[in-house]
Amino acid sequence: MSSDDTQTRCGFVAVVGLPNAGKSTLINHLVGSKVSIVSHKVHTTRMRILGIALHKGAQIILVDTPGIYDASKKGTLERAMVGAAYEALDDADAVLHIVDAAPKHLGEQNKALVEKLPKNKPSVLALNKIDKTSQENLLKHAQDLNDHHPYDATFMISSLKGHGTEKVLDHFAQNLPEGPWVYEEDQITDLPMRMMAAEITREKIFNQLHKELPYATFVQTESWEQFDNGSIKINQVVYVERDTQKAIVLGKGGSRIKQIGQEARLELEEIFDARIHLKLFVKVQDGWAEKPENLREIGLAE
Questions:
Q1: Domain annotation covers residue 302
Q2: Taking burial as the number of CB atoms within 10 A of a residue's CB, which of 40, 54, 108, 194 is the most buried?
Q3: Per DSSP, what are the bridge partners of residue 99?
Q4: Are 135 and 212 part of one and the same domain?
Q5: How open is the CA angle 46-47-48, to the nearest 5 degrees?
Q6: Which range among 27-41, 203-217, 260-274 has the greatest average pLDDT?
Q7: How many domains, the chain?
């Protein structure tokens, strides 16, 4: 951890945007390692996840948030997710607003989100997916959004390919508050290992079954045992809300859950640099997303 507060900068940056704007992909790229799961399924990110990037003497603490949208008529889980995003905005030193620039029209949801951005905090606009639209469209979006909010800077990026992302890091490294680093130099996230393992498995489920399975699927790491040889035994439970969903996750003869487990194990071995023994079980828990104890498990309730 840096101790010379005259030479370093440090601050929390809330990364906000609509679902599937590319927030998690960008954070993973800026950190240089996977800290937040990525899926084609909307609302994949459920909790506030810290990704810690070091750049030119600055510790840039990126807070990945659930996508912000109108959840007033949704269930407990959705309202808690959006609430977590707004709390991140309140707590942050700066805001990074990511917008999917591919559509020709920004839409009412984007405009509604802009109105909710704090005017009293430094904010940056990142127009994402620049490889999927025209320069004319990018300039139109940039002008339209800057007319509605006083952004300090606007960047054109591709979070998937990394285009323009270095400039985003440069900006925050120069403008975050001066002060000592909050986290150790080699720390890239505040997510506990048990929760990270559960998130990786959930990502594999969504990547394989995003068209067949509702996003309200919950993975819990029930046990974690580390042996003297460095290997780790992990037991996880995949909770679904219906028997029909359980059948989908299991697959014929258990083929699907076996494939999910294999993909999760390989990635966990890479992340933790250890041999992983992963066992997955599937259980039905009707209405899990409405239960406070489950929301506490994923960091969305006190």
A1: no
A2: 54
A3: 127
A4: no
A5: 140
A6: 260-274
A7: 2
